[in-house]
Amino acid sequence: MPGLRNALTWSATMDARYERKTVGLLSLAVAATGTIFGDLGTSPLYVLNGIFPAAGDAPSAEDVLGAVSAIVWSITLVPLIKYIIIALEFGTKDEQAEDVNKAPQEGGPFALYGQLYLSEPKGSEITMPTIHTPSSSRFNESKRFIDRAFARTTILVIALVAVGLIMSDGILTPAVSVVSAVGGLAVAVPSLNSSDIVGISIAILVVLFGAQRYGTARLGSLFGPIVLVWFALLAGTGIANIATHPGIFRAFDPSRAVLYFVRQGSITPLSGVLLAITGCEASYANLGQFSKGSIRLSFIACVYPALLLAYLGQGARLIVDPTNTLSNVFYNSIPLKTGGGLWYTVWLFGILATIVASQAMITASFSLIQQMVGSGSFPTVAIRHTSDSHRGQIYAPVPNLLLLVGCVGVVVGFGTDSRLTNAYGFAISFLLFLTTMLLTLVMINVRAIPAVVAVAFLLFFGFIDGLFFSSSVQKIPQGAYVTLTLAVALALFLCFWTWARHKEDVFDAAHRLRLNEIFTRSNAFEPGTSEEEKTGATTAFSIEPIDERADHEIDELARTTSNVSEQKVKIARIAEKDTSIGELMLIAPDGPIKLPRMECFSFFHHLGEGVGAPHSFSSQLRHMPVLPRVCVFLAIKTVNVPHLQEEDKYMVDKLRAIDGLYVMRYRLGYRDKVDLRNMVQPVLQRIVDMERGGRLPGTAAEIDAKVALIEAAARTPTHFLPSYHVTSKGNDIKMVWLRKPLDAIRAFLLEECYRRVAQNFPPTAGYIVDESQILRIGVNASI
Questions:
Q1: Which one of 113, 152, 392, 705 counts the least CB within 10 Å of its CB?
Q2: Is the pTM of the predicted complex or chain greater than 0.85?
Q3: Would you list the domain boundaries of the chain?
Q4: Which residues pair with 586 in a beta bridge?
Q5: Among 72-76, 536-540, 585-589, 648-652, whose mean pLDDT is lowest?
């Protein structure tokens, strides 16, 4: 499997066993049409009425032509050129992949931020847990402007605000789309009132969010054909309407749009035009769910031409019969009889398409939440993978419920009021501008695109985004305040969580202990031991794996010591014998404490990426100063295949200097469960093979005795899982009179908010365990 070829325990033959059948480009494009472009595809339901209100005067033919021209060029410049052609090239890339361009990618504003500040060095997915050397970063010594503290914080806030806007859009999109589609029924059934429309809309939303558990793959296979039919209906009705007034093709002349705004003396109508491009950000945010090739094929071959035909057709109908069309431009422009067979067919597929439109923003929200959970900017909510063929297709139960509550609240609060569409457009306009800024930064700082090209991109698209934003700001008193409130609340929460998690990570890194800070030995060497051997044995507590080669295979753990010099072997042998350099001692404030061995087989879990022994290990020694016979420092990592065979999950190596200490990487496919119940036997087998394989010093009798002790210890397995109890340590600002109120606010945020939420969503919540084998070690974290 590309992406695992360079892994420490993988060979080419193993790769072949995990080669997955990839979904064909055409099939993926159909699914992308259903999952991503439903939002963009349902915009014709309400755009022209957003520009020309139903309660207003009928527009002139020139105004209709200008408005349609603005719509056509907005769709061309923003969704097509900015997102489909340019932005899709800026997804995250897996540098471990054999073919980087075919590796799974992620999109969206937070993915752009992640590219600016890569946190993990190459290969970190497959290397052992680090306990002896600092982790490296490609930016540790960088002189880039964006690496300055103020710049980095500012860019992070921009990314989090953008995420907040997308998530608020994820709440508003289902509400706007479903209410607009259901409201069309009132054209054929005038007796239908606002309460009926709200009730039907809520029922549809509940069904939609309830179906999320079945996964994007299943929903996409159903939604794809539905949306294809919808786009065919849009194109067909558009062509029929264009035939009544072919002069509408003059809308391809951009000067018509310019003249329209000149006549209006304002850019306010752009807030209505903006509704035509809502959903375009989903094409980029959903890059983790589909390939960029499938997204491009779907948009260019299907979505783009169908939308142009639909808007041109509606414009033609509005020019020919403005009086009878204006009350509901979309449904009144359906050819043939209102309430006839074609009309109800379009209405039905309109309902289905709006359900799909809601799906686009729901899946985008899931993708963003997954990114933020991984980077520590969101609580560690459960993320379930729903597809064996694509890792990016996921379901998040808790966010799904919160989105449902938000959508229902918006529908109940606004009903069929036009303020709902005003609220909808504001989020998109600001998001467009923030994405342009982040793309420009990535162009210059990550992709090494010439600055003149990046600045030209910023100026051109920044100007367009600025126009849209300026027009939508005017809608704040008319409903956009809802979006603003939602986005600000979400952004503040994300910023708060990122800050608190950063404080916890700083504490974690500062309080991790290397083994030479935990252990020492009494200085009693055998007569004749050279100074070099004494120094080597004493300083062996830098603790490194016996074998540091990067290419060893999982079936070759029985390795010789040919790669270790005779002097190192002799030093290691001296260091391993307690009788030769004295007893193992635990470093304590009152002096070293003798450290007896306890006959048990213990796993100490790494939950972070910091350097040093796991907190669970040092905490256990502080509370109970005995050393388990076998200590396994365990880190769990997910790799880019859905399932791993059992024999390929375990990667074990031994630490020198202290007998019985091992490091282990437990690797899982992204759809595998973290099951700790039966871990002991496979790990025991690998340790025994390692001890007997001639790789480590010692006579046959010594090795047999050691193996017997290890096997006896394996009868009592224990997993030590750490958990933080966060407290606020206060601040030391110079203005003494501010300390007390600020300390109270800080304590409330960290202890009452962050700690309580974090305790309800621990990183180990999804583990399958035998509680009789689990010891949870509390760590007091004053941050």
A1: 705
A2: no
A3: 32-120+146-506, 515-523+579-782
A4: 519, 593
A5: 536-540
